[in-house]
Amino acid sequence: MITIRQIKISIEKDTLEELKKKICTILRCKENVIKEMIISKKSIDARHKPEIYYIYEVNVSIENEDNFLKGNKNKDIVKYEKKEYIVPISGNVKLESSPIIIGSGPAGLFCAYILSECGYKPIVIERGEKIENRIKTVENFWKTGKLNTNSNVQFGEGGAGTFSDGKLNTNVKDKSGRQKKVLETFVRCGVDKDILYIHNPHIGTDILRTVIKNMREKIIEMGGQFYYNSTLTNIEIINDKISSIEINYKEKIKTDTLILAVGHSARDTFKMMYEKNIPMDSKPFAVGLRVQHPQEMINETQYGRKNASLGAANYKLTYKAKNGRGVYSFCMCPGGFVVNASSEEKKLVINGMSNHKRDEENANSAIVVTIGPKDYGQNVLDGIEFQKRLEEKAYEIGDGKIPIQLWKDFKENKKSLQIGKIKPIFKGKYQLSNLNDLLPEELNQSIKEAILYFGTKIKGFDREDAILAGIESRTSSPIRIKRNEEFESDIKGIYPCGEGAGYAGGIMTAAVDGIKVAESIIKKYYV
């Protein structure tokens, strides 16, 4: 096969027939010469809006490919390079007990999936409920405010990303084929195959729920097990090696291989591990507010048109404040909701969420500011304590509801008394407040500068009735659990993994990290 890059098709003429004609023009051949045509990439080029194009990369099989390539001078036509994921060869140490995986977010699930495919029969320990029950619990929380501290937007099968936009983008190149393996697994579990080639694909929270259930069933079919409503409460270490774990303060399970894919909100687990002297450091993260705008406004800026025929547009914005802090948009959710994502009593945290169609009226994104030890202290757990204080304050100023404020009032440091023209779109109850009371003044000022600047990049971003909400405090883990090049802690048999351990950010990178940890175990052990 050969690969043809940079094929430009007007969005008004976007059909497979038109694409094939364009390829024939590029190759100077008739259509019957093309034996096979597989789209490998598709992205939007809106640099010259309102004229908008799709840019394709297509793998094509034609007659006499070698002869064609010898005479080819077009740099956008190259020999096809196949990227296939290859599982490593098993090691020479006998695995005496099933690997235990703590957490069933993307890192834990993909670690379990790879190990199950290779016959290692992992046991997945999840503090929350299976996805079917978790959905009901979360929806009841949004309706009534009754919180289950072990099964919520942060905890439960699928991890925190289940109640999100389901973004699958990453800036890391896929030389190993691991990303392709993740995408193909998602397709096998119910996602449309267009995620294999669309630029910055997403699944949507509604589709993710089915995918997670299907992944679980496939893992069980291959010999894996799942324990739900099961919290890791102790780790027994003998001679600097894992010996057993304790679940729910009572059940003891012996193991010599423990994968810690705990997620970024497992604060009690981090504290327990710290007390057990498992090596870990604090790490910088970001906190801020989430902003809502009409999706049509974002579409008009990004596409030059309000309608969403191209799908709901997204954005990515960055700014360096006068005080030197970085401010950026995070977890942008086109056509989505802002959700109450709390996981602890009398503490409130929010997140963004979109369904697959991204068809809600508003776009939302977190606008967050980078922070580090100078803001919260030098001790390992100080970042977590800083998060807690912010979340307690958010709960307090919103009287247990999501505190919200119009941009104009936030800028002028006065409590909002009424909503503007933008309809608030939330999951969970909200209350008009003054968000200036939430963050330290230096962070407030950074956000105010940034939003004014972002208004020069996206028209209307700084409109007076834009809706702000808080607090966005769990952008990434405040902890990094140390590991070596083999992904293993100094405590032998412990494998820190995924976003909570400090090695990923988002569904895709967490899933890939889960695969890497599985590979490391496979390379060492055989079953």
Features:
single chain; 527 residues; alpha/beta; Alpha-Beta Plaits; FAD/NAD(P)-binding domain; 3 domains; seven-stranded mixed sheet; 13 helices
- Architecture of the largest domain, CATH level 2? 3-Layer(bba) Sandwich
Structural class, from helix and strand content? alpha/beta
Query: Globular, elongated, flat, extended or rod-shaped: what is the shape?
Result: globular
Helix content: 25-40%
Q: How would you name the oligomeric state of the polypeptide chains in this document? A: single chain
Q: Compute the CA-based radius of gyration.
A: 24 Å
Task: Please outline the major beta sheet.
Answer: 7 strands, mixed
Gap from first CA to last CA? 38 Å
Q: Mean of the pLDDT scores?
A: 95
CATH class type of the largest domain: Alpha Beta
CATH fold field value of the largest domain? FAD/NAD(P)-binding domain
List segments where confidence is low: pLDDT < 50 over at least 5 consecutive residues. Answer: none
Strand tally, please?
Answer: 26
**How are the strands ordered across the major sheet?**
15-16-19-14-23-20-22
In CATH terms, the superfamily of the largest domain is FAD/NAD(P)-binding domain
Number of structurally distinct domains: 3
